Amino acid sequence: MVDVKSFLRDYATKQSLFKNKKFLQSNYIPKKVPYREEQINQIAGILAPSLRMERPSNLFIYGKTGTGKTLAVNHVVEQIAEVAQEKKLNLKVVNLNCKLKRIADTEYRLVAQISRELGQDIPPTGLPTDEVYKIFVRHLEKEPTLLLLVLDEIDEIVKNTGDKILYNLTRLNTELQNSEICLIGISNDLMFIDNVDPRVKSSLSEEELVFPPYNAIQLQKILRERAMLTFDKSIIGEGVIEKCAAYAAKEHGDARRALELMRVAAELAERNNAEKITVDYIDTAEEKIERDRVVDIIATQPKQFKITLYSILHVSDEYKKKNSSDFYTGDIYENYKEYCLKTGTKPLTQRRVGDIIAELDMLGIINARVISKGRYGRTRHITLGIPENIITKVTTMLREGLGL
DNA sequence: CGAGATTCATGTGAAGTATACCTTTAGGCTTAA
DNA sequence: AAGCCTAAAGGTATACTTCACATGAATCTCGTA
Q1: pLDDT at A1 over 70
Q2: Residue A146's beta-bridge partner residues?
């Protein structure tokens, strides 16, 4: 690939493996959602009153990741929005993922973000939270509106900030004169609603829906369908679809994962000038997805998190050389302080670093388990949660990012 | 030898602080009549 | 006098610190067999 130009020329003339890539992309909403017809009909039934400008029952949806919850809701909501537009109804849809860091992960930020989606700007900080509610309500009341508020991964925000926020949201309707809000909560955590104030629970889940995982056969069918749209039949190697499905079925039937796996495998095949997607590419794809996920998470973390993580990697490496793989919060903190000195960063307290370690655990980058070592105190036992082959890459990335 | 007390290193909760950013308000300046 | 700009005042959310207490099993202590 010495000559970039000729590479690019080749690339432009070469036949792509993809007929049309968009069918495998995660934001694609298919016309038909296989094995979810029943749920879609139910959702449609529940939300249909909105087209008469009556507030539908609040809806709560459970199911593991990649079981089509978000997809099904989007599918219905999109069509409701279309019909509403035809009929010139003032119906608005706001779709938010509560997991998005720094966008919708606190009560203030969530309400502010909803307002922004509705075209009402709200500063990122500085206002009292109830003032933000007021602005939001005022904006909504300007003209009679029916708002369908879809809150994806709603369990995340409650985990972070408590269930007060749900109470406030459900209570909002009683304050509104002209407008109405219908809440649609989506949760990956099946246990989630049990830990919520019963009053909130009853009003939030007026209707409930559970999405079961797909099984391997269903996954295969889904994959095959999408693959037909995306590739020529001849390109897909033997057993590719089966293997993708099997991988995903292992992970509680996560369809999103299966589709991503196939897309990435195809991209890799294409980059290798391969004529066919073979089973081998799936393993490589699996690796690449994991790597991208980790790299992506780490890249978006604040500096202190990076330094902490770098310390963890460093300490882990040193201990491995010494053949003692166990290390704890204290070890990390000592090391962390050194790196702060080197990078000219003001060290945080151990209290805070402990919290950061807990948060890194939540992100799945490390595993930190609180253990008691009896006489020798209590601490977090830390192990790396990322595969061996990614560690080096992550380490260099962090080192460069921190200027070490 | 075993039950109960002790101990360690840090977990964890609450309350306080620093920072960044917001709105409101009052004073000072400019401008137009 | 009205209008506009600026700076100060007063207020909030968030990230972090400080303080104080909680934890829980390995180890120690000491009475008992």
Answers
A1: no
A2: A91, A180
